[in-house]
From TrEMBL:
Residue ranges annotated for the RNHCP domain, each copy included: 4-91
UniProt source species: Conexibacter stalactiti
Domain of life from the UniProt record: Bacteria
Protein name: RNHCP domain-containing protein
Length: 112
């Protein structure tokens, strides 16, 4: 059964229940997580325990958004379902980051 936790990034006390998912694994305020799960959501089998930074969002084939987290300890990438109470501004910022910070100078677009 999920337990409440304190976010290691922003310090917010996080309730165990989360709208839209049965395994809350990230802070709804700052979207940071902790490397706890190994192969299965909720298994809490990972040995790492380091903070996981939200680096992007992805959209599954059914339209569901998922957070992409990168572990600051071991570098592992993990996909986590968003929850209904996640910060919509931070989710949007992650979604538009590739457009706001392209890997090439924007002036190149004018030449096309």
């Amino acid at each position: 059964m999920p337990r409440p936790f304190r976010c290691r990034h922003c310090g917010l006390d996080i309730p165990a229940d989360a709208p839209g998912t049965s395994h809350r694994n990230h802070c709804p305020s700052c979207l940071w997580s902790r490397h706890l799960d190994d192969a299965t959501p909720g298994d809490r089998a990972a040995d790492c325990g380091a903070a996981m930074e939200p680096i992007a969002v992805s959209v599954r084939g059914d339209g569901e958004w998922v957070l992409v987290h990168r572990c600051g300890g071991c570098g592992e990438l993990d996909l986590n379902r968003i929850a209904g109470d996640d910060n919509p501004l931070l989710l949007t910022r992650l979604a538009v980051r590739p457009l706001a910070q392209p890997p090439f100078p924007l002036e190149l677009l004018a030449r096309l």
